[in-house]
Amino acid sequence: MTPTEAAAIALQDHVALWSVGEVGGIDVVGAACDALVAGLDTPGLRVLAACTRAEADYDVHDLLPSALHELGLTFYPRDGAAGRAVAVQALARRMLAGAFTPRQFTSRIHARYGHALPLAERLAELDDEYDSIDFGDTTMAEVDAEVMAEARKLAGRPPCPEA
Fold it and tell me: pTM (2 decimals)?
């Protein structure tokens, strides 16, 4: 994967996470800056990357559609259903990169989506398994391994914006 492809994926992940409230506008601006440094360059991306911390939470929503369109990326509206599955995939990639533990990952997914998002159902079930480790035969390491396997499956899937 080239640096520009990696930057495009990272930007798309940030947009999906922003759409469900996992990250703020300043995080999207940071990803836009990283994309510019990696070699992606469009007028809309430059404007997005130029946002200050004070402007980010107000301006990102208006700047994202055109910046992403110029790059051939998908815009997921804030609090829209379309970004949920893609956000789960982005969180899976983050967990695999070490941003948080498998337990934190399942807890986050379960708290946000419960058992209502088909793509994340197994993760919600695994979060329930963590809660019952003391009462069963399953160990923390076994559940962690299942979470990692599920995350690898999710991270490797093509983006699937079905909610």
Answer: 0.86
